[in-house]
Amino acid sequence: MILLDGKQTSAQIKAEIAETVSTMVQQNKRVPHLAAVLVGTNGASMTYVGAKVKACELVGFESTLIELPEETSEQELLDTIYNLNNNSDIDGFIVQLPLPKHINENHILMAINPDKDVDGFHPMNVGRLTLDLPTFISATPYGIMELLERYNIPTSGKHVVVIGRSHIVGRPMSILMSQKRPAGNATVTVAHSRTKNLSELTKTADIVIAALGMPEFLTSDMIKDDAVIIDVGITRVPDSSKKRGYRIAGDVDFESVSQKASYITPVPGGVGPMTIAMLLKNTLLARSRSSVAS
Hints:
The protein has 10 helices and 11 strands. The protein is of the alpha/beta class. The protein folds into 2 domains: 27-116, Rossmann fold, CATH 3.40.50; 139-272, Rossmann fold (3-Layer(aba) Sandwich). The strands form 3 sheets. A 6-stranded parallel sheet has the order 1-11-8-7-5-6. A 3-stranded parallel sheet has the order 3-2-4, with helices on one face.
């Protein structure tokens, strides 16, 4: 069994980006600039955004963090997005989800300029992904594809089962894995909460991508020997033996599944670190596009 080490791989990607940024500085070019909008004080969101700002500093990007209070109205947030869309110094930006319940997330995502949508959530970018056109790929699926490619995991002609059909992970993963790309050309089955006899599907899978948000759902009796297992889940599970009162668990029962898998992502340290690295890669792409446009 080989661990798909997201920490090590993401560090490698960040080093590559930092080298590119260093060259830009030497050539007196403007470095990429990523902005993040955070509404409210959700603890997890604050942690994620903080990590993204630190990652920008690490690779030499400019970064801007816009913190808005919980009671910010939808119109006020739309006004902030309008300003970012029209700020030529900002190459890309994200609006951290989830948003407070009084704000319609779809309205917000639709308002973002697709050319600055480095999260890859705008319908235009999702459509371009579906048509296999150049676009921003949402960071988590992008990170999984990068892991598969960098570890030289064979995917062509393989059977991939994606458990989960979310717009953020499951659905884009199913599209990417079926496309003609280095980590692609697979036959893909999408499973979800209404799928009958799920284990019969996963037992036939060469690659299982678990993205359903149920801790330790996938067990060893649900996979075949030497399957490749990608665990996207991350859930806080109460654990009184831990100082903080909980432990982090993925969608895969790592202890049992790792005994049968050929490759597996750990949680934490697998897919998670890749997400931020790919957000940086998307921001670099946005900067290169703005150079061409200007």
